[in-house]
Amino acid sequence: MSEFRTESDSMGELKVPADALYQAQTQRAVNNFKISGLVMPKQFITALAYIKQAAAQSNYELGHLSQQKAQLIERACQEIINGQHLAHFPIDVFQTGSGTSTNMNANEVIATLASSYGDGTIHPNDDVNMGQSSNDVIPTAIAVSSVINVVYELFPALEQLSQTLERKKSEIGEIVKTGRTHLMDAMPVTFAQTLNTWQYQVDTAMASIRHSLEGVSALAQGGTAVGTGVNADPLFAEQFCKNLSANVGIRFVPSKNFFYNIGSQDAIVSLSGQLKVLAVAQMKIANDLRWMNSGPLAGLGEIELEALQPGSSIMPGKVNPVIPEAAAMVSAQVIGNDATITIAGQSGNFELNVMLPVIAYNILQSIELLANSSQALADKALRSFQVKQSNIDKALAKNPILVTALNPVIGYEKAAKIAKQAYQSGQPIIDVAEQETELSRNELETLLNPAKLTQGGL
C-alpha cells in the first residue's frame, strides 16, 4: 500500500500522507512552514472545533445547510472537542499571519471525518467554512480559547490560591515578625498583614482579568473577510453566538464592530496586560517566600518551605525553594509573552491583523502557565510552610527600628542615638532605652510592644 495519496486544490495536485485526515491546503502549509516545530495549542484547536460546530448548527437553522450535512459536521467537531485527532493539526505556529492555514486545516480534517460517516461528500470550504472567513474565524478562536481557559482553568486556580492564603492567615496570622523595607529591618508586621497583601494582589488581578473578558467575549464571527459580513447571513452572527454559548457554557456575543475585531487585537492585548499584572504579583509572592525561607542558618530563616526534592548534586542535605523559583520563571515567561503580544497587536494593517497565530500561542501559554503555577504555589508552598518562631522572636527583640515608637515621646534625635547604640552593642532595644531615658520598664514595654505597633496610630 502506498504511503501517500494524491490530493488537489486550486493550485494543483500534491501528495499527502495516506492516513492523514487533512487535505491539500494543509499539506502545502506543512511544506512551507518548517520553522519551529511548535504547533497550535490543543486549546486553540478545540476552540476551532467549537466554532465550526456552532457555525454548522447556525447555517442549518438559517436554512443554508442541510440537516444531514450539519449533523455530520457537528459529529466530527465533537470528536475533536473530545480530544481526538489532534495529530492531524501539524501546521507550525509561524505561518501565514491570518492563520488561514490552520483554519483550512480544521476545515479539511472536519470535512474528511464528516464525509467518512455518510454517503455524500462534505466540502471543506463550501460546507464546513460556510459563512466564514479565516479572517473572522481565527480572531474568534483566539477569543473563545482564551475565555474558556481563563474561566475553566485560571480562575479556579486563583480562587484556590486565594483560599489557601485565607486559611493560612487563620493559622499563623497573629504572629508578629520584623517588617522590611529596602530589604532592611523596619517596623513590625503580622503574618496576617503579609499574607493579606499577597491575597489582595491575587484577588485584584483576578478581578481585572474578569473585567477584560467582557471585551474578549465579543466575537468577530460574522464579519467574514474584512468586517462587512459578505457571504454570511445577516442573522448568522447572533445565531452563532447563541449556539456557541450553549455548547461551551459561557456567554458570547457578536461584536458591535467586526472591523475592530478583525483589524485589531486590542481586547487580547488588554487581557494579556492583566495576565502580566498577575505575573508581577506572582513574582512578588515567590520572591518574598524565597527571602523568608533563606538560610536555614545564614539567611532570614523566618519560615521553612516544604522539602520537595534534593537541592544539589554535590552538596548533601541542601534543599531549595523550587516551587517559588518555578513560579518566578513562569512570571518571566508571561511578561515576555506580553511583549510579543503587544508587538503582534501593532500589526493590524488596515482590515486585518497579520500576527494572529503567534498571539494565540502566547496568550494561551500565559493562561496555562499561570493556572498551573498558581496551583503549585498554593499546594506545595503556601499551604505547607512552617513558621520558625525562635528566629522571628530573636530578630524582633533586637530590631533597633522599634525605637520609632519612642519618637513622639523622646524625639527623633534621641531615638536615633538609642537605635545606633542598640545595633552596635547587640542589646535589645528596650534595654538601651531604659538606660538612656527616664522612661520606666513598664512604660517602655507598653510603647515598644511589637504587636501593638502593627496596629498603627500614635
UniProtKB/TrEMBL annotation:
Segments forming domain Fumarate lyase N-terminal: 12-336
Chain sites annotated for binding substrate: 98-100, 123-126, 133-135, 181, 313, 318-320
A Pfam short name: Lyase_1
Subcellular location: Cytoplasm
EC category: lyase
Reactions catalysed, as given in the entry: (S)-malate = fumarate + H2O
Job description of the protein: Involved in the TCA cycle. Catalyzes the stereospecific interconversion of fumarate to L-malate.
Name of the encoding gene: fumC
Subunit: Homotetramer.
Pathway of action: Carbohydrate metabolism; tricarboxylic acid cycle; (S)-malate from fumarate: step 1/1
Protein name, per record: Fumarate hydratase class II
Annotated site (Important for catalytic activity): E325
Family: Belongs to the class-II fumarase/aspartase family. Fumarase subfamily.
Active site: H182 (proton donor/acceptor), S312
Keywords attached to this entry: Cytoplasm, Lyase, Tricarboxylic acid cycle
Main location: cytoplasm
Lineage: superkingdom: Bacteria
